[in-house]
TrEMBL record:
This is histidine kinase. Responsible for the formation of the pyrimidine heterocycle in the thiamine biosynthesis pathway. Catalyzes the formation of hydroxymethylpyrimidine phosphate (HMP-P) from histidine and pyridoxal phosphate (PLP). The protein uses PLP and the active site histidine to form HMP-P, generating an inactive enzyme. The enzyme can only undergo a single turnover, which suggests it is a suicide enzyme. One of its GO terms (biological process) is thiamine biosynthetic process. InterPro entries: HATPase_C_sf, HATPase_dom, His_kinase_dom, HisK_dim/P_dom, HisK_dim/P_sf, NMT1/THI5, Sig_transdc_His_kin-like_C, SsuA/THI5. Pathway: Cofactor biosynthesis; thiamine diphosphate biosynthesis. Belongs to the NMT1/THI5 family. PANTHER family: 4-AMINO-5-HYDROXYMETHYL-2-METHYLPYRIMIDINE PHOSPHATE SYNTHASE THI11-RELATED (PTHR31528). One of its GO terms (molecular function) is phosphorelay sensor kinase activity. Keywords: Iron, Kinase, Membrane, Metal-binding, Phosphoprotein, Pyridoxal phosphate, Thiamine biosynthesis, Transferase, Transmembrane, Transmembrane helix. Its EC number is 2.7.13.3. Homodimer.
Amino acid sequence: MGRSSISIRFYYVFLVCFVLPFQFPIFGTEKVTLHLKWFHQFQFAGYYAALEKGYYQEAGLDVEILESTVGIKGIHEKVTRSTGQYGVGSNELIQERYAGKPVVVLAVIFQHSPSVLYFKKSSNIQSIHDLVGKRVMLTPRMDEIVAYLKKEGIKLSDLQLLEHRFRPDDLIQGRVDAYSGYSTSQAFDFQKANFPYIAYSPRVAGIDFYGDNFFTSEAEIREHPERVKAFREASLRGWQYAMNHQEEIADLIYEKYSQRSPKERLLFEAAQMTPLIQHVLVEMGYMNPGRWKHINDVYFELGMLPRNINLKGFIYDPNPPTNYDWIYYSFGILVFSLVIIWLVQWRRLNKQYSENLKKQVEVRTEELKQSNEYLQVLNQSLLNTLKELTEAQDRLLASEKLAVLGQLAAGMAHELNTPLGAIVSSNSSLSDFLNHKLKKVIETIVGFNKDDSFRFHKVLEESLKNQTFLEGKTERLIKKELAAKYTKIEKMDLYGDHMQLVVETGAFRLGDELIYILESDHSLEILEVVANISSAYRCNQIISVASEKATHVIKALKSYLVSEKDILSGDTVVDLIFEMETILSLYHYNLTKVNIVKTYLTDKRCRGNRDKLNQVWINLLNNALQAMSYSGTLEIKIQWIDPWIKVSVIDSGVGISDSIKGKIFDPFFTTKPDGGGMGLGLDICKKIVSQMDGKIELEEAQKGTCFSVWLPSANS
């Protein structure tokens, strides 16, 4: 009886000291922080309810809720920096996950995003397509709106994008034509101001994103799985309570958290959230992996994410499957033990056999030693012969390289003369402006009054913004349209100075603001000054472009001629696209009648001798151009066929007859007339490629000839 009593007491002590502390938070609470993505408002009602109703405390959590005044900026870094951090984000979480941030979405609150685009009901925007050319404010990271516009055929470049100031008055006062916001909050401001509006939701185009999602880090889930589960359950419980007691929680937010929004606005926000959260029809916090895949597909169409990214670990599973790793580990240990026992037994049996084999090896080694000495002498002789052949081949390559440069000399002179002529001409015009016109321009500008000065800056800004050259037909059409539009303005005579300067400066693009420019008594002087400045700016641009072109030609020539790295180290990593572009730059003058098709399907690099490979490309290009008589289509195709990099040169020439296809790689075999070639080009190409463990082949082509070079990649 006494022994039984002692056992019972020990059980109770063990239960109290070691079991209960891990089951119930009776010895304290764990400190966690929740970062909101905006100001305190009903948008985050569930978290306030969970805190104030004691749901977090029951779960053993001491939660601090922090509002944000700058949106989601910086929240992801705060959450992933340390454990105990949680945040409220949106669909950008999938982008952050792909970018390398270890974020995990715990639950979805809004089953449908509240993001909409507002217009004035009585404005000239009657459909989403009327937005082109209009002033639009888009909230940062509201990608569902951008996807909606793209699906409707509207690019961001088609809009006048303005920085979002989060002030509904910008739309009400007409400072902007369209305004992105939430249907749960901005609609209240518009109704309160009796402002007639129209709201377009991306859902009408099939773009259905989630709304607010709360998330944490992989480290938090890994190190504190029970705390994550408790925080999630308490938060969702708070959301369920908040949506069922909206007036109570609205009073709580106004009295304890923020009086920035009146109770009326908080209740309006709650009513608008109800159909978006759907807490009656859908389990609170539910999220479908298929919806996240839909979001991934939309981001792919926007060019912001690859298709079908790996979502493993991104979506939190509150009830993960049972871990059977211990069974696998036990089985592995058992198998390992059996292998060890077998190895010990095998070693014992093999020892005797090894001793007998050792004697035979000693005898055979002596025989091989004598054979090896003979092979070393023979190998040295072969190395000397190979060295002599390599030197002869290098001399032949250098000779062909100089011959190519001789052929390209006239073309290189033309390629340099054209930009240099443009530089000289533009410099002369710029010098004339600085020496003879600049002083008059400055005196004219200084003499402008305040209004004329404003007009001058307006026209100058438009002129410098778009320096597009107008063809004669286009210019005449614009003049006729301007003459018809401004018939009542005497200054806009079809053949007058004003008309010519309005077109020359680009002032016609100002639209109705052009009348304001023409109202000035000094309108002609304003246009003349802008025309002079715009002309000088254009000359500067021409000099810049021409200098860059000349520099590009010289760099290409230098890159072709000099390669100290290859000379010093032999084989190196070769950038095939760069080398091919360099050679095409040198051949530019000979390609005026040739349509170059570049099909670069990979940017992987090969390993080889850059200088020798360039000779291969030059031989193949020369043969292709001569086969086409320097007129036709030349395709250069680079692709990755594991483990090879395949470079193909395809021309639209006369092709090669079947009767000689087996001889084209033979030395001294040529189809060119006497004096046209020695017949060594393709033979040299084959030897160079073979030295680099590659191969060159003549492949079938629909028209013309296709030579393909297979080279091992640098990573092989």
